[in-house]
Design a protein that fits this description.
The protein is of the alpha+beta class. It has 13 helices and 13 strands.
Length: 414
């Protein structure tokens, strides 16, 4: 049997793979930055520098890292593409049968920042308050038993020079990911994607998808039971079928009530502002409803999908897929808490975007460990002293244990 690779060897292989097209100084920066993030769990260059423990004054290490963070020779697009190339084979094995690609837009709020570049108005997802910060578009694959695999994260700002619109920024990330994802993957979107422009773009790209509809919206849906808004459709066709939905990675389940309407078409806006059935529309949708205590909030779910839903089993599968999408929000919370992402500080726009990418590359390395030998992963997680068994979502424990282990096994450190 081949020898099991050590964590240090897997880390070196990971850095070499994602940085395959970088110049040597930039590759060294990538290695140092990822090691520092994993050991000290902070985006501050001073903390990354302390993790490196170089035989020089800390200020000199910080300056070197700062030059690397702002380097023009560092190719962010190449790193992104090489990472996707690295994880693509995982999406085609038995752990990801027809993977769900969960898409989410989250934020980093910087209420006290003054000199950071291109700060823009964002809505804090945790408080609902408006403030200054940046937006992040995040894509993550979900497989069997709640397995997670981060695919891409891009930071953007509405005040940056390259910005044209939120939709354009989001669609650029989705288009860049599609070549590395199986064609039969199912895409899941929150209510922020409930818009005709997104429907049209997703159809053009040939995606199979589910999108949560905004019940308070005035959108008209043309259905076999009449033309009406999503909220009116929920009242007209209340969920009646029982469905047990699984909780990600757990044996427990929750009972929901589900329903559906097939052969649904979207509205078309005439020049006079009135809405009519778009007779040229070739995409036929289904709307699936779900209600029950297993859902967040009191309102039922209304999910629009271009899958042909004809049975309760079909509807239940769509509900399960959409609920899997919520896992990407837990991943975003882990990135913010585990690596202190919201404490991000940089004085160049390149540095701000690059540090966000580095955080998700560090998370990606942890995901590579999770998808490797299970015994090795559990040994690392077990070094974190806590009560109870190793949890299904073990990234917090894994992060606590990985830095010390890398330090001990890396021949004196990087």
């Amino acid at each position: 049997m081949p020898r099991e690779k050590s964590i240090a060897e897997r880390f070196e292989a990971y850095v070499e793979a994602v940085g395959a097209r970088l110049h040597k100084p930039n590759l060294r920066f990538l290695r140092d930055a990822l090691f520092g993030l994993l050991e000290n769990r902070s985006t501050l260059l001073s903390e990354i520098g302390r993790a490196l423990n170089e035989p020089r004054r800390l200020i000199h290490t910080e300056k070197r890292l700062s030059r690397g963070l702002a380097s023009r020779r560092y190719n962010d697009d190449a790193v992104e593409a090489e990472y996707l190339k690295l994880v693509a084979p995982t999406l085609r094995d038995e752990r990801f049968p027809r993977p769900t690609i969960a898409v989410d837009v989250t934020d980093i709020t910087k209420p006290k920042a003054r000199k950071m570049p291109y700060l823009a108005g964002v809505r804090d997802g945790s408080t609902g308050q408006l403030g200054l910060g940046y937006n992040l578009i995040c894509l993550e694959a979900v497989g069997a038993r709640g397995r997670r695999l981060p695919l891409m994260t891009r930071l953007f700002s509405s005040t940056s020079p390259e910005y044209t619109s939120n939709n354009a920024s989001i669609m650029a990330a989705i288009r860049a990911t599609i070549p590395y994802v199986p064609k039969d993957a199912f895409w899941a979107f929150d209510s922020g994607f409930d818009g005709r422009t997104f429907f049209e773009r997703f159809n053009e790209l040939g995606l199979r998808y589910a999108i949560r509809l905004t019940l308070q919206g005035k959108r008209k849906l043309f259905t076999p039971v009449g033309a009406m808004t999503p909220s009116a459709l929920v009242e007209k066709c209340p969920p009646t079928h029982r469905h047990r939905t699984r909780k990600q990675g757990r044996s427990s389940s929750t009972e929901l009530k589900i329903g559906w309407v097939s052969d649904v078409y979207t509205q078309y806006y005439r020049p006079d502002g009135n809405t009519v059935l778009n007779k040229s529309e070739t995409t036929r949708y289904s709307v699936v409803f779900a209600s029950g205590h297993g859902l967040l909030g009191k309102e039922p779910l209304a999910i629009l999908t271009n899958e042909d839903v004809r049975t309760a089993e079909d509807a239940g599968r769509i509900v399960d897929i959409y609920l899997e999408r919520w896992g990407v929000e837990e991943a975003n919370r882990f990135a913010k808490q585990g690596f202190d992402l919201e404490n991000l500080r940089a004085l160049t726009w390149t540095g701000v975007k690059r540090m966000a990418q580095l955080v998700y590359l560090a998370y990606g390395f942890l995901a590579q460990l999770v998808h490797g030998p299970r015994e090795q992963t559990e040994r690392i997680a077990a070094t974190f002293k806590a009560f109870g068994p190793v949890p299904t979502y073990l990234y917090y424990r894994l992060l606590e244990g990985i830095g010390r282990l890398l330090r001990r096994t890396m021949d004196g450190g990087p």
